[in-house]
Amino acid sequence: MKKLLLLFMLMKSFHSYAQTFDYGNFRFEIISEEEKTCEVIELTNNEKSEALIVPSEAVFSSGIYRVVRVGEYAIESCKARNIVISEGIQEIEQSAFRYSLCRSVAIPTTLKVIRESAFFMCDSLAELHIGNLEKWCEIIFENQHSSPFGEKNINDKKKLKKAYLNGNLITKLEIPSSIDTIKNYTFFGWDNLETLIIPATIKRISDDAFVGCSSLNILDIEDSDESLSIGVNSDNGSAYIPGGRKYPMFEYSPLTTINVGRNLSYTTDSEARSPFTGIKSLKNVNFSHYVTEIPNNLFAGCSYFPIYIPNSVTFIGNSAFSTGSYLDVNEVAEIYIPSSVKYCGSGWPFAKIRKVYIDNLANWCNMGFSRIGGPLNSNGYSDKVKQCQLYVNGEETADLIIPEGVKSINRAFYGWSSLKSIILSSDVKEIGDSAFYLCKSLDMVEFNEGLTKIGDYAFKGTILTKLNLPQTLTKIGLAAFIDCNLKNLIIPDNVIEIGDYAFAHMHDVESITLGGGLEKIGKNAFYFSSGSTNYFPPSKLECRTTLPPTCDGEFINQYYESTKLIVPDNGLKSYMESAAWQKFNSIETYPINLVQELGLTAHEVLVVGDTMRLSPVINPESASNKHLVWICDNNDVATVNELGLVTAISVGDANITCSTVDGSCLSATCKVTVSPIFAESIALDKTELTLTIGASENLTATVLPEDVTDKTVTWSTSDASIATVDNEGKVTAVSIGEATITATCGDKSATCKVTVNPILAESIALDKTELSLTIGASEKLTATVLPEDVTDKTVTWSTSDAAIAMVDAEGNVKAISVGEATITATCGDKTATCKVTVNPILAESITLDKTELTLTIGACKKLTATVLPEDVTDKTVTWSASDAAIATVDNEGNVTAILVGEATITATCDDKSATCKVTVNPILAESITLDKSELTLTIGASEKLTATVLPEDVTDKTVTWSTSDAAIAMVDAEGNVKAISVGEATITATCGDKTATCKVTVNPILAESITLDKPELTLTIGASEKLTATVFPEDVTDKTVTWSTSDAAIATVDNEGNVTAVSVGEATITATCGDKSATCKVTVNPILAESITLDKTELSLTIGETDKLTATVLPEDVTDKTVTWSTSDAVIATVDTEGNVTAVAVGEATITATCGDKTATCKVTVSPILAESITIDKTELSLTIGETEKLTATVLPEDVTDKTVTWSTSDASIATVDAEGNVKAIAVGEATITATCGDKSATCKVTVNPILAESIALDKTELTLTIGASEKLTATVLPEDVTDKTVTWSTSDAAIATVDTEGNVSAVSVGEAVITATCGEISTSCRVIVEKISGIVFVSADDINIVVNGNELTIKGATSEDKVTIVRQDGAVIYSGNNRESYTLVRGLYIILVNDATYKVVIN
């Protein structure tokens, strides 16, 4: 902490010595003396004025300084009406102009950065003047209030902010193409902007760049194949604008037209807003062909406009055109979506799209959509809005015909409430999830054979009343037809699974038929609300599968109560054993015609990728359930689906087996051999190829068909000495000639003729195209022939004029005479030339004997020039000076110093020259001395040093002061030395290159006295107390206090003066600072007990019982905690040294615990031993009237004083008990016997039973009847006095013979049954044999002729108008309605009512 404080003081001290000066209306601070730069730190004259100019230069005694910065708070609260910031200023610091009243500000082109809040609360600032738009775009604004218009209030339409470029109001802004990023807040609040053009060079628009541009109508983002990143705001959404809330970047710009020329990217805020969210003025948006994606929420919440999506777009994001509400029915929008779009996101229910234009219905069906569909769902979930219309290639349609080639339909038509009908093409295999969800007008669907799956919610909310599902269908998804009002539902035989709620809420359904292949019914698949009066269960549910489908749950009770279940007769037992099916009140069977023959072709051959549907032979044709289960024993080779469609996967063999499910247990197998796909052709991309030696080129082989199993191509060459080929088809030319390259796949091949030519020169170039020589000079030209590997590189050289210049076979050119000639180099048919100019001999160089010269004013020195070569024609040298005011030179090269400065002396011969830099210096200091060479100070003291510079006439006597260690001693510009901390430092005074030093020694401030706040201290062992030491004087350099004790065994002290008592005695604590000390006498006393308590003040024990008492002595740190125990009466209770109390005899005693002079007591009461429990050897007892049995009671513990047991009965009229526990049964009923010892009791429940039957006999043990006949059996029960002689009658098979409660036996059907008579637990039986009688066994009227032929019944004489009711023997109504041609009935007894006539019929 001390070091931090010292550092702060040093920094503050250093700052206080920074050089400041006043100039004009401002105070400046020097930034760099070397660079002559400064900053504005204060406005010294803040009077009201028309204009305030922040200057670019400030004049001080030491020179002219460039103003490069406006400092923190420098011009705050400025009263000038207009502020001009001059060119050259590069930075405006934090809060520099805050609270200013200016109306306009002019920004220089040199400005680089504006720091935080530079224009904070500059509410009046309405005009901004800039001189260069490119430079303005490069300025960094650190926050909103760095912007001149940062205080813009979006709700204030009167205070407009306007920007000017070179005096012209900016209404159309085209960002310079040199800019790639528009920085944060750059155009914040520019109310004058009407048109904004973003060029293709811009990569990013940063956060808040255009927030609050309240007049912006047109935004033109120019075309580019690179995306544009747009920031939203600096705080996850929008910049803060005074007025209440945050805004997206362009929300409050009245944009009417946006041209989107490329992909846009941005991060939406927490409210899912884009930079364009909520623009209510928007009328046109134009997307260029460079746009491939429309991101999420792009125009969410905007006004309505026609949406034209170009065919370059493949992706439309979530809520890209969402308005946020679907309740406004007055607006209409339309959208054009091309076939290039592969995915449409969510948010369409709020887009208010009323017309959707597409150009390809097949592509639309296959397009990806979100969970809630696409733009056809724009009417949302309200019936109040106008329905959406679909236009395909310009034609409106509400009746949909799915085109060929569409294999699946996804959510493309989700929510399309105008759709009326659908016709599916034969190619459709799957209707995806929610495909036609909420198509509220859809009342007709024509399904195609070949459709295998209908997805979840596919037709939810439609108004379909009938379905004709295809036989190829295998799965119906979750809630697929929920809310559809189907009348008669037939599920095809190949459907395996029906999903949860698939057909729920069919309020008018009459019958449901489930196919023979159905395996699973989902939860509430046929559910309707049991509390609704509009829903009724079907009258008939027919299930064609022999094994009942598994159900996720059960049917609702209304099905069980009202619906007749019809099942195959060979599956009745399975249905009756199924929890979900056995509860139907009415179950009827129908005879099943089993499959008798099942066959498949023995062998089929496919190639990889082929499919084939196997066609099984099923006989007879009239088989009731032809559904088959298909399996494959090798799915790696081939697979088979539920319809027998085989797909070849890989080469090999597999066995495909189909099996019946109707109970016939037949199967058939077909062996499938999968062969590879062989190449049918191979072609090369080139049939001829011409190469030069060493060149390479790739050949590409195309093997057809595309799905050939092995596409490996083998490459070969007819002559590897001419051309080679590698495994990838890369051909390399080796030598001149012809060769044939062959590509082979399987037994197919293709060839390419390769011709290899020599390498010819393609170009020739000379290292010089022009050459200047003097007479007699020579120079070599070098020719470069390309390519490098040209076969013949021989170059021929020639000259256009040998009298001027000659060239030899090596390219050496020699100058002969003055003039021009052309040298030509030739290789093959290629040439290159060089123009040669021959000149006279000129000076080639001139040098001076000195390149730099330093003189003092008035001095003179001669320069000597040397011209080369020696034979130069004219060696005349001309001398000149760059600044004769500083130095002059005569014709002989004599230089004379005139004034301080620099000048250049130039010597020239022909076109050659040489220079010498001449520096003229002032008179410098020769020595500097200080008035003190050593100085001793204490910390904080100051003293001034005085420097003397000689000679007297030195030009610049400025002395610079410095310190070797500013942490010890500092010095200001006047030589004032200040002591900072203990140590030594050297103060140096410098004038020119001369220095003088003074050694400064800084001494600390020592302590003069130390005192303690307590001279004496009394503590108990373990106690602590703090001593406080005070050191004087206050500014002692080192106030560290050292603490010590005279006896650490008695008392210790830590570094903070905390004294701790250790043991009894006295010790002295000493505090020392420097050579000063103070003491405190410490007395330590022992700790005595202040109280003693027991954990129990009263204790109840029985004789012999023990319990422990625990004593607590306080305080915890008592020196001696020994406790002494005693008893008031050892005859009644004793206590040992540990506090353990033992009960001896009945009575009371007091136990006392003592520590020091403190005691605590506990009253002990000793009681006798009582009974804790009593049990009886029997808790229940069953007797017959008059019977007796003894109960035995056990009392615990064993040593209970009084074990006397008292016996009692709850009802002596039923059972009695004596004093010994003997129980006697009196009459039938139940009574409770209770045994009591002390306050403990136990009970036994006694049941008295009546006299039961011992035997039962029938008058017949065997009975033979014919179907429909009856006979009575008589039962005899013994003994005679059995209380209840009631006989219960039962039959082993009610389908053969029944018996009533009186023993009347009725024959039902042929067979044997056993009739059993039961009384109590005794039973006997009679064997009943029923013999066959076919046909009618009873007719109540003979005007109707009933004919029975096997299971078929015909009513002759009755018309189709007659009412017929057929009732099964168990009361179930099998049929009720007008007379039919015939009836098929299973075996059993039936009552047939024809009008008012009754018939009894037995079917065998």
Question: Which features does this protein show?
Answer:
138 strands; mainly beta; disordered N terminus; 3% helix; seven-stranded parallel sheet; 44% strand; 5 helices; 1404 residues
Characterization of this structure:
With 1404 residues, the chain is an all-beta fold. Strands 1, 2, 3, 5, 6, 8, 10 and 12 form an 8-stranded mixed beta sheet that branches. Strands 36-38-40-41-43-45-47 form a 7-stranded parallel beta sheet, with no helix packed on it. β21 (239-240) and β22 form a beta hairpin.
Q: What general form does the structure show? A: flat
Question: Into which percentage range does the β-strand content fall?
Answer: 35-45%
**CA(first)-CA(last) distance:** 112 Å
**Structural class assignment:** mainly beta
Low-confidence stretches: 1-16, 234-245, 325-330, 380-385, 1333-1342
Number of strands: 138
Helicity, as a percent range: under 10%
Largest sheet: 8 strands, mixed
**Number of helical segments?**
5
The overall average pLDDT, rounded, is: 86
- Rg for CA atoms: 58 Å
Write the layout of secondary structure elements.
Blueprint: H1 2-16, E1 20-23, E2 26-32, E3 37-43, E4 51-54, E5 57-60, E6 63-70, E7 82-85, E8 91-92, E9 104-107, E10 113-114, E11 127-130, H2 133-137, E12 140-141, E13 162-165, E14 168-169, E15 172-174, E16 181-182, E17 195-198, E18 204-205, E19 218-221, E20 228-230, E21 239-240, E22 246-247, E23 257-260, E24 264-265, E25 284-287, E26 293-294, E27 307-308, E28 315-316, E29 333-337, E30 343-344, E31 353-358, H3 361-366, E32 368-369, E33 389-392, E34 395-397, E35 399-401, E36 408-409, E37 421-423, E38 430-431, E39 444-446, E40 453-454, E41 475-476, E42 488-490, E43 497-498, E44 511-514, E45 520-521, E46 540-543, E47 550-551, H4 557-562, E48 564-568, H5 572-576, E49 586-590, E50 597-599, E51 603-607, E52 611-613, E53 617-619, E54 628-632, E55 638-640, E56 645-648, E57 652-660, E58 667-675, E59 681-684, E60 688-692, E61 696-698, E62 701-704, E63 714-717, E64 723-725, E65 730-733, E66 737-745, E67 748-757, E68 763-766, E69 770-774, E70 778-780, E71 783-786, E72 796-799, E73 805-807, E74 812-815, E75 819-827, ...
Parallel strand pairs: 3-6, 4-7, 6-8, 7-9, 8-10, 9-11, 10-12, 11-13, 15-17, 16-18, 17-19, 18-20, 19-23, 20-24, 23-25, 26-28, 27-29, 28-30, 29-31, 30-32, 31-33, 35-37, 36-38, 37-39, 38-40, 40-41, 41-43, 42-44, 43-45, 44-46, 45-47, 46-48, 48-49, 51-58, 60-67, 69-76, 78-85, 87-94, 96-103, 105-112, ...
Antiparallel strand pairs: 1-2, 2-3, 5-6, 13-14, 21-22, 33-34, 50-53, 52-56, 54-57, 55-56, 57-58, 59-62, 61-65, 63-66, 64-65, 66-67, 68-71, 70-74, 72-75, 73-74, 75-76, 77-80, 79-83, 81-84, 82-83, 84-85, 86-89, 88-92, 90-93, 91-92, 93-94, 95-98, 97-101, 99-102, 100-101, 102-103, 104-107, 106-110, 108-111, 109-110, ...
